[in-house]
Design a protein that fits this description.
The protein starts with 5 loop residues before the first helix and ends in a 20-residue tail after the last helix. It has 12 helices and 7 strands. The chain has a domain of 225 residues: Vaccinia Virus protein VP39 (Rossmann fold). The radius of gyration is 20 Å and the shape is globular. By secondary structure, it is of the alpha/beta class. Bound molecules: S-adenosylmethionine. S-adenosylmethionine (SAM) binds next to helix 2.
Amino acid sequence: MYVTDSTAKADQDGHSDYENGPMTTNSSGNAFVRIDDDSADVQRRVVNYLDRVAAHHEMQRVRSVAFETLAPAEGEHLLDVGCGLGEIARQLAVRVGGGGSVAAVDLSEQAISVAQTRHDGGSATYAVGDITALDFPDNHFDAARCERVLQHVQDPDRVIKELARVTRPGGRVCVIDTDWSSSVGDGFDHLDEVISSLAARDHNFAAGRTVRSRMVTTGLQRTTAFPVTLRFTSPADAAVLSGFFNRNFMRDRLSAELFNRFFASVDRSVDRGDFLFAFTMWICLGQVGFPDQPSAFTQATLTRADFNIYALQDPVHGGLNRLSGTDEVPSLP
Ligand SMILES: C[S@@+](CC[C@H](N)C(=O)[O-])C[C@H]1O[C@@H](n2cnc3c(N)ncnc32)[C@H](O)[C@@H]1O
């Protein structure tokens, strides 16, 4: 998708416009750890935040690559866990059709209740559940995905293990997450200090870049990772996705001195019109192995899903032929 700067510029009409986003009152300081523990006002802001993120041009670009990477097919049984308001589950349901199914699971009753009210009659179903202890049998799904959840959990490895457990041999696990420490900027100052301050408080700050190695450790095969860099030309546009430019969010997280210095430089960049900010999200895919067989590609018959993984990984022979990042190119039998 081609993105012009005109939308972003339209947001530059004031310095206080970029103060949205969910503020939490819970002890973790992270609204997404347990949405239901927060006040009704915070929960309303969380829903609003998720909607704004879903509508953002850069997130739509990430999701479009993620959708192609997962390559859902008609008749498949899929899981989207940490589904939030369920819009991706509903998109997947359109792809799998009436012969397939999509289970949308989230820890938050509030998120699931909003997702249910938005149900469009497709094959998605919604349930409350914990990504670290899923209420599904082994080998249940053809593919499982989770987006922007790993950065909020205590034990990210357990998440990958659970996703692998509930996915059938030969099935795909797709995990999408942010690497906040990849953030870079131009036109304003002190971002490195801001990043260091936040990274010191958050053990999952770089979650996105760790997903592939977690998949390898868990034993997923054919692992691959696609970085997508999101870019923003106004702090208002960036603040839809990133707390860095949300003064309410940052006030408690930075020293008063750094807070004032950082936002003064951001405001000057707005006045000059030269603000630029970017960070990377990672879309990682792995395949659940067959017991006693090291490679899914030793199977006599390749399913379409198997082929999608092969195609994604082989930029020369792969039918999709539009993404680099070949980690391991198997020989077709
Ligand atoms: C940043 S939101 C992302 C939501 C959705 N994946 C999206 O892309 O819009 C994180 C979601 O993960 C959910 N979550 C956090 N911890 C979870 C857990 N242990 N099990 C299931 N969901 C969890 C939150 O309730 C929240 O809906």
